[in-house]
Design a protein that fits this description.
The chain is α+β, with helices and mostly antiparallel strands. It has 7 helices and 6 strands, in the order βββαααααααβββ. The chain has a 4-stranded antiparallel β-sheet. A hairpin with a 2-residue loop joins β2 (about 30-35) and β3 (about 40). It is globular and about 45 Å long. InterPro entries: Trigger_fact/SurA_dom_sf. Keywords: Signal.
Length: about 210
């Protein structure tokens, strides 16, 4: 049976501050989750959420609609932060890396496809709850995921390795944000399926 787990289109690493800080023992006040013995702090999570809310509030004519359409933003962001850590561990185990140059090329291709930075940012905000400052981390996330799928030769094999990495990280989540589903690699009821197709933007023609 095909496993359907959640790794949404948007990928969100913290840009302004580290996602994780050292942690000994179990969750403590100020902790949203513990992943591999490292804390995802509530302040780090809130920084992700505030960045998106600020961008939504700046959207002319659609601020209220954007905010209303993303009521579970805290859980969405924490889900992605945990999945990012899982992806990083699985990629490290497989020897898979992404270079800054690859990220830059990916972002340039995205920009050319969108037609302008304004359109790209508006689309990311509406469709994936991504603030402009989160786009670079999102690009790296997608590239790393695609490379991992390529490395294992099949999506099912890659998902098996991701599930194993998640298990090794002994993930614990503050109950206020939901329950971590180790089998599906997802937090609570986040039901967005893993992206099965490659998400690398079409590259511009040579000489374009």
């Amino acid at each position: 049976m095909h496993r359907r787990t959640a790794l949404s289109v948007s990928a969100a690493l913290l840009v302004a501050a580290p996602l994780l800080s050292a942690c000994s023992g179990g969750p403590r006040p100020g902790t949203a989750a513990v992943v591999g013995g490292e804390r995802i702090t509530t302040s780090a999570l809130q920084a992700q959420v505030v960045a998106v809310r600020d961008a939504q509030n700046r959207a002319d004519g659609s601020a209220a609609q954007l905010i209303q359409s993303s009521p579970g933003l805290e859980r969405v962001k924490l889900n992605k932060m945990i999945q990012t850590a899982v992806l990083e561990r699985a990629a490290e185990d497989a020897g898979v890396t992404v270079s800054p140059r690859e990220v830059g090329e990916f972002r340039q291709a995205q920009l050319e496809k969108a037609g302008s930075s304004e359109r790209l940012e508006a689309s990311a905000l509406e469709q994936a709850q991504l603030a402009p400052a989160q786009l670079e981390a999102d690009a790296r996330f997608k590239l790393l995921r695609d490379k991992l799928f390529e490395h294992y030769g099949s999506q099912d094999k890659a998902l098996e390795r991701l599930a194993a990495a998640a298990k090794e990280l002994h993930i614990k989540v503050n109950p206020r944000y939901g329950v971590w589903d180790a089998q599906q690699i997802v937090l609570g009821d986040q039901a967005t399926p893993w992206i099965t197709q490659r998400t690398r933007p079409e590259q511009p023609a040579a000489g374009a």
